[in-house]
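Subject: sequence -> structure tokens, single chain

Hey, anyone have a minute? Need the predicted structure for the following. Not urgent.
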Amino acid sequence: MSSRIPGFYKLSIEERLKIVSEFANLTDEEINLLKKYCGLDIDTANRMIENVISTYQLPLGIAVNFLINNRDYLIPMVIEEPSVVAAASNAARMTREGGGVYTMSTGPFMIGQIQLVKVPQPAIARLEILKRKEEILELANQCDPVLVKLGGGAKDLEVRIVETRIGVMLIVHLIVDVRDAMGANAVNTMAETVAPRLASITGGSFRLRILSNLADRRIVRAWTKIPVEAVGGKDVAEGIMEAWAFAEADSYRAATHNKGIMNGVDAVVIATGNDWRAVEAGAHAYAARDGRYKPLSRWETDGNYLYGSLEMPLAVGIVGGATKTHPLARICLKILGVKTAQELAEVIGAVGLVQNLAALRALAAEGIQAGHMSLHAKNIAVMAGAVGDEIDLVAEEMIREKTVRIDKAQEILNRIRVSRKT
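Reply:
Had a minute. Here:
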């Protein structure tokens, strides 16, 4: 089936669910779980974290129209912000005019850091560690023979001499192929296992043994080429390029530029039960890797096409953690139809690029509030007490009057109710 579904937003919830269930071949049990609107039971929640008293829900929507590496995807997105899912769907439709989005990625390599302090001769100690690299890797791989059997495991190490305000430290990086996992547990276990041996080799003491969330060995790249007519013409395409150039030159703008990317990235990361705080930390650290905070994407135009690209670290998994524990995360992975963690990461990178396109186009064309405010107005109408068809009527009137505030919503709602009584 194609993910190009015109008017998907106009359908009823039942009709949307029917399309998604056919696309992903969901079972009756999975469909019923989605219909409960509370897919996480309290017993499962109590096993996931500590001190549980309840569960907390966010909307789960489906972004349509995505064509990634010549394959159609429906994208599950968990987010509270209005207009994000709609904007992603609309921008994805635009990218189809140029063949969709293409992606590539490095292997699923994570970095485990071992901090060594009070090392007598750091430069010599560094070489001693490198000389024993194979011994250290073998020791690390004894921790997880299953991972090694699957083709993963500790593959390399590097040693850095780091000057700090309290003295020189030796920092060992253990490079681990984590296969289809996010990898935190496996990497942390390996780092803890090799730390005593590293301290013995160097004559120092070990302190921290933990993975780094700057996963710069686990990079996703996404790119697209769109005819300028698909985004609204040459002027809009130039506006998108100028908006990017602003972000590239100014960190204040770059922060909001990247937030727009993360709107899409985080929504899919959350939907699939992955660690969005780790992904956020890695993304922003990567954006500042050259000493100044910059945009994660790039946009250019030659007058005929708009060219967009994105590069960022993305450490996500499809096995372990909440991705397997949370029943709705499992269903979201099934809807995506991804087979490996690398494929999931590439899909998420594509969503980030498309979400960025949507935001920049809105800024360059009608302004960010035009689409956002129509959905925001409905939220304000509900806050004012509107129910049923009153919600749309109040929202539409606020948009017409160009005043979206709760006092205005209450005023309009009172008018509607008085009018209906008479």
